[in-house]
Design brief:
alpha/beta, seven-stranded mixed beta sheet, Rossmann fold, six-stranded mixed beta sheet, 2 domains
Length: 349
């Protein structure tokens, strides 16, 4: 009799699901058991009954989702049983507590990467290579134009930009995501900053999570507190202000004074004009995701014969197929689609 093999991890309307283990990975909706790769809001959502994440990410998860959530932390590499599978979490190098999820049933091994990067980052643990048969990878920067230098001294570059602006009487408004990017910037600045970096309130609590984990970050001060000390006709001057762009819409933004802007992101790569198109005065190519070269290197090093791609999947999928790798978009992990993938999943019983 011919029967269809079932994937160890499937794609559902709630996200990635491991039926044999009874858990979801980064579910889009509330579920009974969620393994969360990291605390960014597009991966960690409220409402699930129980959460599992890397130990170093528990405090961040509770800061984002609420202190009363049922969250279990596990050490990187610690193997634990869920249903019929063995699970372990391995550093993804994305932000503090970010993890790849390794799932094994018998001799079959799958890895769901979550978001990851391989660049040096003093604010979190480095990426760990994990071998597997099937790899589910992100591909935020999954086209060949997204390649960046690996040996840039981001802290020095940001500090020099800050000092140059200060000499001219300007504040330096540096935009970056409140979780992950902001703390990486502070970690990169730690050896250089001679005065505290002024941070927005959305960054403050998350940054303290990093400090309590032992990460060395530049000294900081609260933006609203700094403004509260100013007289009626005074404004800030010569400060580095680390903030999301929303600060410019807040009622007291006039107290910031004259400023120059910059954005720290992988989206700044390319012709050098990306920051101008975004309306910024400057851009720093600093990403929390793997670039094109590191995506391909990682896939190669897993040894996976089959790869499923999330996000910008088309170019990467076509490229992987030229390398002899079975590559598919993530929705091909739906039960009905998986069954017909070139007949590769038919087995005789």
């Amino acid at each position: 009799m011919i029967s269809h093999a079932r994937p160890l991890i499937t794609w559902t309307d709630k996200g990635l699901f491991c039926e044999a283990g009874g858990f979801y990975i980064d579910p889009h909706r509330a579920v009974d058991l969620a393994i969360v790769t990291h605390a960014h809001s597009d991966h960690a959502r409220r409402g699930s009954k129980k959460y599992i994440c890397a130990s170093s990410g528990v405090e961040l998860l509770k800061t984002r989702l609420g202190s009363k959530i049922d969250a279990r932390g596990v050490l990187y590499g610690e193997v634990f049983d869920l249903g019929d599978v063995k699970v372990s979490l391995h550093s993804a190098g994305h932000i503090l507590g970010s993890a790849q999820v390794r799932v094994q049933k018998g001799s079959e091994v799958w890895v769901a990467s979550g978001d990851y990067k391989r660049d040096r980052d003093p604010s979190c643990d480095p990426f760990e290579k994990v071998a597997c048969d099937t790899f589910i990878t992100e591909a935020t920067f999954g086209t060949p134009k997204f390649v960046w230098e690996k040996d840039l001294e981001h802290g020095r570059m940001i500090y020099e930009w800050w000092m140059e602006n200060a000499k001219r009487g300007y504040n330096s408004m540096l935009f970056g995501y409140s979780l992950g990017k902001a703390q990486r910037i502070l970690a990169e600045l730690h050896p250089f900053a001679q005065k505290p970096v002024v941070i927005h309130k959305t960054i403050k609590d998350l940054t303290e999570c990093y400090r309590r984990d032992g990460r060395k970050l530049a000294a900081t001060t609260d933006l609203e507190e700094e403004i509260s000390f100013l007289g009626n006709d005074e404004t800030l001057s010569g400060e580095l202000i680390l903030t999301p762009p929303s600060v410019l819409k807040e009622g007291w933004s006039g107290k910031i004074g004259k400023y120059r802007t910059a954005f720290a992101s992988g989206w700044m790569v390319g012709s050098g004009q990306g920051f101008k198109r975004g309306g910024y005065d400057h851009g720093f190519v600093m990403s929390d995701h793997a670039d094109w070269n590191d995506l391909n290197l990682t896939i190669k090093e897993t040894g996976a014969k089959k790869v499923y791609v999330q996000h910008r999947d088309g170019v990467l999928i076509r490229h992987l197929r030229t390398q002899g790798i079975e590559a598919y978009a993530i929705d091909e992990l739906e039960h009905s689609r998986y069954e017909i993938q070139s007949g590769m999943n038919l087995v005789l019983i």
